[in-house]
Amino acid sequence: MLKKLLLLSFILITSIHPQNIHDLIQPINLIENETVSIPLCDIFYSEDYPVEFLPNEFVDVKYDSLKDEVSFTPIKDFSGMTLITFKYYDKIYEIPVKLNKTKKYLFTYKLQAGEKQVNLFGQFNSWNRQNFPMKDSNGDGVLEIEIPLDPGRYEYKFFVDGKEIVDPENPVKVPNGMGDFNSVRIIEEEAKDKMFLHIIGKEKTANELTLKFYFENTDRSNLVSEESIIALFDNQKFPGQLIKVIGREIHLSVKNEMLKGEHIVRIAINRMGKHSNIQAVHIIDGAIAGSNDKRTLHDQIIYSLMIDRFYNGDTTNDSPVVHDSLFKPANYNGGDLAGIIKKIEEGYFDKLGINTLWISPIVDNTNNAYREYPAPHRWYTGYHGYWPVSSTKVEEHFGDMNLARELVEVAHQRRINILLDFVSNHIHMEHPFWKEHRDWFGVLELSDGRKNLRLWDEYRLTTWFEPYMPSFDYIGAYDALEFMTDNAVWWLNVTGADGFRHDAVKHVPNKFWRMLTKKLKRNIELPKKKKIYQIGETFGGIDLIASYVSNGQLNAQFNFNLYDVAIPTFLDEKASFKLVDYQMQKSFQVFGYNNLMGNIMDSHDKIRYMAYADGDLEINDGRAGEIGWTNPPQVDNQSSYEKLKVYMAYLLTIPGVPIIYYGDEIGMTGAADPDNRRMMRFDDELNQYEKQTLEDVSKLIHIRKEHPALRYGDFLTLQADENIYAYIRSDMNERILTVIVNKNSKPDKMI
């Protein structure tokens, strides 16, 4: 009987999951002189991995069948791009791997009397205070370390015998928002032989679709050779007989029999140890993506809202927490699910141009007020949704499960997707789990007498946010891992929602995200043929952020590294767009041009852009928390709205997924949390400038919706300086020139 059940289970699994690869295998970034090891589940989903890797002349490949992990070690002097070939069942597939050699830069520190251990740390290593120890190799008392850095702006410090110190030899420093400063080093781009693979266009005949490309580089004497072309149809080599080279033009012919369904053609040029950009062409049933009404995840324009602060659609569930030390900004303000439904039905999001809503957590939260641990120890409620006391109940201030289902149904009728906010890192101590499963959680008291509280980097996977918010110990509690991943799948199944925004991703181990994503693919994506979008929140270096983005984990994370450079650049007339472009190119190198990373101007954790633009706060202003309580910013200058529109034009025309935080569309201001979470205003509540901003931002959003090159296209920088950021976006449908001008409001600086 058991054998029959096992056989039936195997038949069911293989019928749902045929022996084909459904994920698009993403390029893997190799590191010079290092081995990169990756679980196969991060490369593509399967219930099992009967794979065989073939030899490669540039990369040593080793597969550990016990761990289902593959390791890549570049052979000495290799750089550029190559394909790693492997067999999976009866088919041959390719893994693109690439290595861009990075120049190393020297950091020095002169030891002072009594100092012993010094480590370098900064944005380049996610502020890890341990992994860059400095050494005095020649005994002169000066410690040194060389690290590879791409062009860009880097904040850093020295960790000297347990104390953080700015670089005493570097006069350039900036506030870090925590009452101290960080040193700053800028790495300029060196002159190099730039190469770019352009899209020319397409040609359709009765038998085939021809995709045309043009290769440009500094040395125009060298034409394109067939050997330099790396072309893929989905995850397999593009048939050589369908590739035609004419000088610097490359034509790829896609036969009609290849066009059924959804496919992606990718092509790059690899020559002399360097590779061009990777062009990716999405094809859906014979049509180029974006040319009809068939949508993919790349078409998302996300609107982020905090339920309690958006719109009050049902006053009967208004019941603020009563507490003598609790003030309105930290209490429930009345927004609910009924309010969101009403605005959907009124067509607010249709007019704005939004097709995806990310809503704050709907799970039940405590009905009591709690005091924050850091000074000044104010009292807060769980209005935001991040203090869960249940795993299945909807917060009664917002509605109930029936209303949550109705919200999703009404949104889907308008072709609007819903992303739920899932809290996997912690619970509130009122949650039954804290009593019933104490072993699922870590400890607050450390062995050295300290509290494991807000130690974001030192105890990244176990630190608590507040003494009343126990963090899961997924490393030591497998049952918690199983339950919470099952619970996430349950929320999507019971509501019909389309994906997640995940809270505090870097504080949750990778194996959680791998288990969750496997369950989502097994139980929802493949059987229901429904793409689930998962985007995470991680503050840290780009390598840390990228470690959670793969086919086996999350589709994306918020691109905070790009945000951190863009915000001060747009606000400072003297700051050059070169720094933004450096970070943009780094993002392309790590995530690709056609990435799904989330681009933001504001969020519920950030000071609002308008508070900066209007001069109320400085970047990393340590006063932001108190100002929000004692002197909340108000917009005084009409020109600040124009500054917002310039940033919005940038946000809505770059690769990735744009995320509009509620209130951005009207120019809402606000200092730090909770002042950046004011109640949304509509219609007659808006002044004339806010109404005009709403109209103009809506036009910008619709421009993105109407032009597929802004959603699927490449990115070629034309100019990046103090005043102008100009770039071209192209796909097989169109070519668009986008220019950001007049940052400093001087007419003579316009193009």
What share of residues are in beta strands? 25-35%
**How many helices does DSSP assign?**
16
- Main sheet attributes: strand count, strand direction, barrel closure: 8 strands, parallel
End-to-end C-alpha gap: 77 Å
Task: Give unreliable regions as ranges.
Answer: 1-15
Radius of gyration computed on alpha carbons: 26 Å
Specify the overall morphology.
globular
Assign the structural class, choosing from mainly alpha, mainly beta, alpha/beta, alpha+beta, or little secondary structure.
Answer: alpha+beta
Strand order of the largest sheet: 32-31-30-29-26-25-34-33
Number of strands: 37
Please tell me the overall pLDDT.
94
The level of helicity is 10-25%
Structure description:
With 751 residues, the chain is an alpha+beta fold. 23% of the residues lie in helices and 25% in strands. The protein contains 16 helices and 37 strands. It has an eight-stranded parallel sheet. Strands 17, 18, 21, 22, 23 and 24 form a six-stranded antiparallel sheet that branches. Helix 3 packs parallel to helix 5 (401-413), helix 7 packs parallel to helix 8 (510-528) and helix 14 (638-651) runs parallel beside helix 15. Residues 1-15 have low confidence and may be disordered.
